[in-house]
Amino acid sequence: MELRSNEFKARAAANLGDAKLQKGLGLIKVKAVVNRANAVAEFGDFEALREAGKAIRNRALADLDLYLERFEREATARGAVVHWAENASEACRIVVAIARENGVKTVAKSKSMVSEEVGLNDTLIEAGVTPIETDLGEYILQINDAEPPSHIVMPVIHKTAEDVADLFHEKHGTPRKTDPAALTREAREILRPKFLSADMGVSGANFLVAETGSTLIVTNEGNGRLCTTLPRLHVALTGIEKVVPTLEDASTLLRLLPRSATGQAITNYVSVHTGPKHIDESDGPQQFHIVLVDNGRSKLLAGEMREMLRCIRCGACMNHCPVYQAVGGHAYGWVYPGPMGNILTPSYVGLENAVALPNAATMCNQCGVVCPVKIPLPDLMRKLREEQMARGLKPWPERAGLALWGWAAQQPALYALGTRIAARFMKWLGGSEKLIHRLPLAAGWTNGRDFPAPEGRTFRELYKARRK
Amino acid sequence: MRVALFVTCLADLMKPGVAFAAIRLLEHGGCTVEVPQTQTCCGQPAYNSGDRATALALAKKTLAEFEGFDYVVAPSGSCGGMIRAHYPELFRDDPATLKRIEGLASRTYELTDFLVNVLKLDSVPGDFRGTVTYHDSCSGLRELGVKAQPRALLATLPGVTLTEMNEAETCCGFGGTFSLKFGEVSTQLADNKCGNACATGADAIVGGDLGCLLNIEGRLRRRGDLKTQVLHIAEVLAGRTE
After folding, report:
1. Fold of A5-298
2. Complex ipTM value
3. Mean pLDDT within B182-211
């Protein structure tokens, strides 16, 4: 996926003025925030469940190498083939090689963010293989000239039903319809034969279960099950951090994931894939390949962003983020938007390529309190800001301003004098209205807001005067 | 009980009345209030900007100034949260200072939290009359658990009616330097907050952090609303301090 994270500020500002986008984003509060709150309230002790989820993920990460080796052994013993990809291009190369060796012409894909991360579709197309997205949202994006998703769970949240109506009418050549059920039926009619004719299915994996060598996916549309059972090959592509020790652990996390993502107690489908079709089974792929992608993850394991690897990709952080809610996912310029993206993007593509992202948060910690595995997202963003400071990646006016202010704040007499002058100057600027309409060096504030003028004398002065 | 007031840089510069109101409330609760004169800033702007060295220096300065008191009280969940929730992290590699910092952190309170949970006040000197709506500031709410305390205190004022706004717990978009760096986004969030607050028809929007209040008032006035008051909770609870 094309990286545009350094355009965050401009794209965010543009998106604020996009009425159609804002209408779509408004649905997040209705669909995700309210539904999650209801599901959490109904569950009871969700806090204990979050603690349990965090503990499971920490346990898996503490011995990640051992659990991955165990996973490989168990999966191999059950007939799957495990491949290791160090980076994006290697992941793509592996999938293309599997396709070539087996004469694959078309691939039915269920939703996979890792496939977006490594740019799988483009590579398949270059290799003469046709990928077909079968998740409804991803399908809509694919036929819209391969537009990138704007959310990891609800990829077309930025589009309205009207947009989809226009798109289907144009691309399918069918009469225009706006009823979501009718649109879904139309997509299903187009996709069904593609499932049946695809040579290979590609899925992601929400979890890898070490003790059984299984991959597990959750879906609501059922397309994931078709992709992983109908074609003669199934390739599961996922990150190495997704491993958990046991099925029991996976089931605990399954209680957290859909509730946090969409407010569902459980998704419509939960599919566990253990090996290819067995001799005594009538359904399933003849070959089952599992591609485990590192692409920067093992580097995180050893560093200060380690806690981010607990992430189970529910999207609750973005759903609850006031900044995401206002600007939408495309502003973030890569695969993972919102608070998770503020950390993952600079971690995976380089801090210098996503300078704005760790700063694109008010530190309100709404993300931290809803995260099902208790990732301290604002703390991690702050650590990235520290790294930016250390590496000189912050603009010089910010560094100079901070240095000057920080120095003055350590000289109480000078600070007192400076604030006395500032209080008087700003009072004068505010005039009789007591409102400052334009403030030097603070256009970011005063372009859209007034600045209430101070009263003119500092507390320090007044307090001294009163004590006399 | 010797209580040190952490004035906050915003009250010092922008609204001294908030600090005087805090003193009045603390004295009303029987405290001996002292104001260390060399205090400046808790260091949060530096901390959140990634300037750990400056944050550390200011934390040490604050420690030296405030260590000798029974309690430290700030009319701000943001500064209170910095001292209580973040100072210990700053000293994780300095065990000797960490112990002292943890002591300071455990004795530091946001104003309404202190009035309710330490002083157990059941009356306040204020005489505000009118309908108010309360904005929950992020740090106070999510770092210090300040939610019921200001509401309990407002409920002791017979002339005050509290009408809750939608999304009272959602960030107003201030975020310190965020409000300057991402001005458009920050303004949009402030606008959402103003919309929710004004929909209650309240006479005053009340909150516990001057940063949020300046942001909300700034947007409110730019929207053309010159009528709705924007007040710090201390001002409402303390009444006239002149």
Report:
1. Rossmann fold (3.40.50)
2. 0.96
3. 98
